Amino acid sequence: MRHFLTLKDFTKEEIIEMIELGLRIKAEVKAKRFTPYLQKQTLAMIFEKSSTRTRVSFETGIYQLGGIGLFLSSGDIQLGRGEPMKDTARVISRMCDMVMIRTYSQKKLEEFAKFSDVPVINGLSDEYHPVQLMADYMTMIEHGKDQNPVVAYIGDGNNMAHSWLMLAAKLGFELRVATPKGYECDPDIVEDAFIFAKESGATILFTNDPKEAVAGADVVTTDTWVSMGDEEEKEKRLKDFAGFTVDESMMKLAKADAIFLHCLPAYRGFEVTEEVLEGPQSVVFDEAENRLHAQKGVMVWLDEKRTEV
Ligand code: CP
Ligand code: NVA
Questions:
Q1: For a disulfide at 112, which of 89, 142, 239, 307, Cβ 3.0-4.6 Å?
Q2: What is the CATH number of domain 7-129+291-308?
């Protein structure tokens, strides 16, 4: 049995396999063929933070696969009143077939997985957002940006930046990360990424200059400057991130046919301008839709691994 907690745990081949599976299921569903790959299975979805895309894509995804999703907000279940993760894990995994969790620390997620009898999927933690990257790479494939792409990530060295690091390091493409001083990626995650990059041939560059990162890039991406859990630092962050807005002048430094990605929700006028987000290079709504398709690939793949002997 495998869990999907971080891309660190997967080979390049496995990541591609899951995305290709997602693309196959996407084509089937677009042709109105709903194959019940996960018939009668229940996906428990635990949320300790807000969500639009993750909730809707997982709930719709499991339904299209013949199963059902249970939305469990931590405010409504005993976890929110102090029931330990390890007890919650053992109870839920005896009743459900798969679990998705959106929580704070990766450690909590790992603890849940350790005590779970069923596959656990990371629906975003403070450290990583791996299901988002599956959708992002699917979108890159569909827009012809998967052959030795140069990806520029502009902004906070947060869960999205860490996930891009892992994807680039595993798949072997060039990633340039531009963060303001003091908002760099977690050094332990960077260290791991360099180990995988050595094997895959990925090039990873860190800079405090967004222009350097974006020059000649095939894909430009960013994320909110104030992630869930960082709200108290909002005022300071908005000042510290000055100069890191992805605007039309920044997009002009990338390749003429570069695409713009954003995991959403986007804050117009901060990490990205209205013009870029709504402009011709932006594929953010394809990317959002691909959450649904990519995650079905992940769920069916995890189910196959469980039944393989
Ligand atoms: N991108 C993403 O995970 O969005 P939600 O927070 O709406 O789930
Ligand atoms: N970095 C953001 C991503 C939201 C999908 C956050 O953690 O809030």
A1: 89
A2: 3.40.50.1370
